[in-house]
Amino acid sequence: MRLATKLMGAAVALSMGMAVSGAAQAQTFVNVLTGGTSGVYYPLGVALSQIYGKNIAGSKTSVQATKASVENLNLLEAGKGEIGFTLGDALSQAWTGVADAGYPKPLQKLRGVAGIYPNYIQIIAANSSGIKSLADLKGKRISVGAPKSGTELNARAILAAAGLTYADFAKVEYLAFGESVDLMKNRQLDATLQSAGLGVASIKDLATSVDITVVPVPAEVVAKIGDAAYQPSLIPAGTYKGQDAPMPTAAINNFLVTHSGVSDDVAYGMTKNLFENLDGMVSAHAAAKDIKLEKALAGMPVPLHPGAEKYYREKGLVK
Questions:
Q1: For burial by CB atoms within 10 Å, which of 41, 117, 173, 181 has the most?
Q2: pLDDT score at 23
Q3: Has this prediction a pTM greater than 0.85?
Q4: What is the DSSP code (8-state) at residue 300?
Q5: Among 125, 271, 299, which Cα is nearest to 210's?
Q6: Triad 87, 92, 97: Cα angle to 5°
Q7: Exposed, middle or buried: residue 180 (CB in 10 Å: 0-12, 13-18, 19+)?
Q8: Pairing outcome for strands 141-143 and 191-196
Q9: Residues of the chain with pLDDT under 70
Q10: CA 265-270-273 angle, 5° bins
Q11: What is the C-alpha to C-alpha distance for residues 310 and 270, in angstroms, rounded to an integer?
Q12: CA–CA gap between residue 214 and residue 281 (Å, rounded)
């Protein structure tokens, strides 16, 4: 009887231990929501996942390729990820609930982690198309990004400010970066609009196969968008093969976002280890050179997660 009682007690203790262990593992599971594999979000997400796996005790990490901003925010709202990349305008629209942007209702569970680096609107045309300006795009074949992606939302804003609608094009494709480049290589498209960090792999790949033109987006067009998320900027000369001069364009800041269901400890760990391991991010993509702690809270359109806020308070960014 005593032996049976001891065995039963041991079994109960083991069962309780397994349950506690399982809960702990679930609490520290970190799924990083990124974008298409040919963009900038994906390699940075892989690097972030590796950083978290090494530095957040007991964490199990994974990386999910997605259609980027809009999908990431909807997944976070549904609790299907712990941290995701997004463009600033997509984030502000998600918070308020803009149906045409892919948010039938406000996504009120979203919580901010950090502002990171800017995306640049990069409109790339084949030299053979004769496109030199936004006006020259009329009647041409263009890809504007995956449907309802952050890139496609940017495309709508930029083109509208330039006095263009999708009806003005001979053909509009809704494709990810890599697929857009493939069609341009095969002369099935004249231009692609890609919202990404500078030096994005897809455009670098295109420029090695096709002579390209980087189409300027003048500051006066950026001003007509009427959204503070869009700021005039430049694509530096030499960013891509054959680009001999700097080109004006619009820049939109990117953010890392989590949700209210993530524990304070995990959110703190995700924020702290981002900024304390930036060398690993820069090794994954040069866009990460623009990630600065002092800029982390600039323009944040959603409330900070309390765990992230704790880290910024330690660093003196929040009083």
A1: 41
A2: 42
A3: no
A4: -
A5: 125
A6: 120
A7: buried
A8: parallel
A9: 1-27
A10: 115
A11: 12
A12: 27
Look up residue 148 and give its two tokens. 């309802």
Q: How many CB atoms lie within 10 A of CB 300?
A: 19
Residues 6+ apart with CB under 8 A from 292: none
**Other C-beta atoms lying within 10 Å of the C-beta of residue 62:** 14
Q: Which of 117, 113, 116 is nearest to 266 (CA)?
A: 113
State in Å, rounded, how far the first CA of the chain is from the last one.
Answer: 62
Specify the pLDDT at position 150. 86
Q: Is 174 helix (H, G, I), strand (E, B) or coil?
A: coil
pLDDT at 237: 97
Q: Exposed, middle or buried by CB within 10 Å (0-12, 13-18, 19+), for 105?
A: exposed
| 3-class DSSP state of 215 | strand
CA–CA distance from 172 to each of 123, 138, 271, 312 (Å)? 14, 11, 39, 44
Question: What pLDDT is stored for residue 27 in this prediction?
Answer: 54
Contacts of 108 (CB under 8 A, 6+ apart): 95
Q: Degrees (nearest 5) of the Cα angle 97, 61, 41?
A: 50
Residues in Cβ contact with 136 at an 8 Å cutoff, skipping those fewer than 6 apart: 125, 130, 215
β-strand partners of 266: none
Share of the chain above pLDDT 70, in %: 92
Provide Rg for the chain, Cα atoms. 22
Q: Which residue type occupies 183?
A: L
Q: Residue 120, SS3?
A: strand
Length in residues, the chain = 319
CB 122 within 8 A of CB 195: yes
Q: Parallel, antiparallel, or unpaired: how do β-strands 29-33 and 60-64 relate?
A: parallel
pLDDT at 45: 98
Q: What pLDDT was estimated at residue 146?
A: 86
Please work out, in degrees rounded to the nearest 5, the angle formed at the alpha carbon of residue 26 by the alpha carbons of 21 and 28.
95
